[in-house]
Design goal:
alpha+beta, five-stranded antiparallel β-sheet, disordered N terminus, disordered C terminus
Amino acid sequence: MARLGVCAMLVVGLLVAGVQAQPAVEGWTPELMLKVRRIASVRPSPDGRRVAYTVAEAEMTEDRSEFVSQIWVANSDGSDATQMTFATKSSTNPMWSPDGKFLAFTSDRSGKTNLFRLRVAGGEAEQLSDVKSGVGAFAWSPDGQQIAFVMNDPPTDADEKAAKLKDDSRWMDRDYKMDRLYLISVAKDKEGKRVSRLLTPGNFTIGAAARPGGGSFDWSPDGKSIVFSHRKSPFADDWTTSDVSIVDVATGKIAPLAKTGGSEFAPLFSPNGKSVAMVVSDDPPTWAGNYTMQIVPVGGGAVKSLPGTPDRQPTLIGWSSDGTRLFFTETHGTLNRLSAINIESGKIEELYSGSDFVRAFELNSKGSTFGFVREAPQRAPEACVSSSDKFAPTQVSQANPHLPTAPLGKVEVLKWKSFDGQEIEGLLTYPVNYQAGTRVSLLLQIHGGPTGVFVQSFAGNAGNYPNAAFAARGFALLQPNPRGSTGYGQKFRFANYQDWGGGDFRDLMAGVDHVIEKGIADPERLGVMGWSYGGYMTSWTITQTNRFKAASVGAAVTNLVSFTGTADIPGFLRDYLGGEPWEDVSLYRARSPVFQAKGVTTKTLVQHGEADVRVPVTQGYEFYNALKQQGAPVEMLVLPRQPHGPTEPRMILKIMQTNLDWFEKHLGRSQVVEASDGK
């Protein structure tokens, strides 16, 4: 796709001019929240002078409902921000060539997700690959002559024949597709073609599934080998089997590097190529997670385990240019911290612990510059860069000044003591224009995981719950981080093992009581909501107390027994509850909301994605029918095509609006929010 240059800058200038003319609006709505643009893949060039990033926005027409992402490039001082791609389909994951002259990226503009190359100085995007499956993660070779990429096994002749016959039957745990590592040359061969070469034909799949930190593979500095993580199958439950190996690029010979009872992943070559840093779990691995960073010599020798980080959940970013330190991020309470650990001494140095929420860190190939996303409760997300020598953020994008002026509720960090003296932290969002001494409706929002955490991100971000719209309509919002949450240390994160609905439930109720005692919440107008584990806790809460007048149960685990038999992670509850239901069903039944549903009086909304394999929609049906059969006030919204985390803008809008309408209907507005200048 051609770069527009001056024309693109003219468009940006007109956009900014139009934004400045935007009038104030009454308040945030679900529709307005979907106008917040999403920032990702903030990657500085090798010399650190420029930065590429993606901006995604919701596209909703009669025949489309998707987030479309485009690539932008700006100077590292924030000047000359220019849109580089303009296709109707998304362009994602921009990667700089080693000489900084090209960007490689992925796009499905050709029907399948393929690799493309774009000259930064201008010109058309050139398609590099032509695959039947789809390109995933990829990386340039150090000399810029090849690109390694991950791709799922393409359909076989038998698959294509079955598709023509409309035979879509399938066997469980048979003939599944692996993710494999391939190589493709950037230059065409004598026949004018680029032919992909398979590097990992073995009986394993590339990557470590959804575990924290880093990528799935990394080139050696000399370009002769690639280190990669792999597990025995693509099934989510097999993340525990992740090991790390090295493949010789020339011969295809694979040698194991890290293979223990723990889960090893996120491998990164040191600048001199003599060792590999990686993240390693406990042995055996646990779902709540307890991780350290290790340094493994490539040529053999003693493995060096680095001291544990404060939360034991580091996300590995990269090596310092001199190879003496590793950069990582980790959640601390409701914020992220950027840190560096010295390889020799093990000393951890905090590089950033400010009040903004920073995330999605990327380090350029020279180790000199960070790219990341910065936001705050009152500040929309934008791309930023900083030197790795001294952290000083510079904003490089202007993705969200188009948002009209609309007031947001004040957000503060709140702490309280639970039943056993444990200090619990959370976020309290006040209604817009809140007047001290006024009691208002309070919504308790419970996060998923259970190792999730509420952080100080932008209040206007679209999600399943329209938090900015809640505040605009007069609701207060409490977002607690009860025991089991990330960000408060390993002991706290494991404190809900074999105790789902126990101490964590009492942490939540203590938080609600605290907001009531502060004179903010009206005890007669309480609502509760949550998605995934938050949905579990919501359904559990209304079986334990009738203090909440309305509830929204999202993608909830409601029957621990049937969940274990139908979810894509059957080992999850075995870990948390200490055994299988057929070994001892007592705890499974005792902590299942479905088995506690007798007498529920809370007005309940159930929401669930029909294509959810993590928490199958049958979990929603079970709870809905348990309440319905008793004549309890319950409704259920089924979301077609949606997985565990809804992906279509129209469906996300439907979820947000339905939640807003539900709580307004059953709790009412607490106060009228008038037009404001947004200050």
